[in-house]
Amino acid sequence: MPAEGVQLKPQDHILTFEEIERLTRVFVQLGVNKLRLTGGEPLVRKDVDQLIATLGSIEGLKTFAITTNGLLLPKKLRRLKESGINLINISLDTLKADKFEFITRRKGFDIVMNAIDLALELGYQPLKVNCVVMRNFNDNELADFVSLTRDKPVEIRFIEYMPFDGNGWNDNRFMSYQDMISMIEEKHPKLERLQDKPNDTSKTYHVPGYAGRVGFITSMSEQFCGSCNRLRITADGNLKVCLFGKAEISLRDAMRDGATDEELVSIIDAAVHRKKAAHAGMYNIAQSENRPMILIGG
Ligand SMILES: C[S@@+](CC[C@H](N)C(=O)[O-])C[C@H]1O[C@@H](n2cnc3c(N)ncnc32)[C@H](O)[C@@H]1O
Description:
This protein has a single domain (about 15-290), classed as TIM Barrel. The chain has helices at about 15-30, 50-55, 75-80, 95-105, 110-120, 140-150, 175-185, 250-255, 260-275, 280-285; strands at about 35, 65-70, 85-90, 125-135, 155-160, 190-195, 205, 215, 230-235, 240, 250. It has ten helices and eleven strands. The protein is an alpha/beta fold. The protein is about 30% helix and about 15% strand. Bound molecules: S-adenosylmethionine. S-adenosylmethionine (SAM) binds next to β2 and β4.
């Protein structure tokens, strides 16, 4: 959340639980079998437990994931598991409590570390930990994150810092995946590449003998648009076929104007066919207009 906050949308601009459920069913009928709730912070939405229970019961969903800052997980995790959440990503950009407080503007480092342990205890494996890497900010912690995988079966996902509206991105702060690997290898020379699945967004590695793994999300230095099959729906109901593209189409308005499921499918189909072969590259993305990350969700 930016220091100055974000302008909140009127409640009626946001998809209702019924609309979210309807869209999920439409996408599942089209063959989507993985759903991720993100944000903002998904766990602060009022009555989110009820939404998760409803979505978790939709037949055909194989993976039901959530990306969270982890702060509410110790309280909510058992219930989330019962409701069908079977994959968790926790965001954690530092292993130092004071830096955590600086980045997030709140205390909570211990809570997040406890959340990681609780999730492992409850059988979440892999448990993904998202770390956005910024040069001269947390790059000196890369090797420590890898060391964390020695005993914990977590998957640390080092994410290249991406430009979004208002996030102050510049190429001095950017660190490519190749540079991350070189830095990690100074302390972990045995780092070894593993085989990825066809639509994976990360390049996975491990240190032989360690319990966990590390992945690199190389969206800027080595884009993988050709195999990206992600679609995003914003809280206000816009379908976004590319994280880095401004193009959006309102499924909320279509539903509120009385569209049938077949009509929704036609809109989705046309949008997906307009998906570009590749994004425009980090310098062009940095110049172009898009939503801030907080209004997309990652
Ligand atoms: C925007 S957060 C939203 C979900 C939730 N509130 C959380 O903290 O995980 C989703 C993911 O996007 C990542 N992210 C945010 N800004 C980013 C940026 N500029 N470049 C790359 N990843 C980013 C975060 O690290 C996080 O893992």
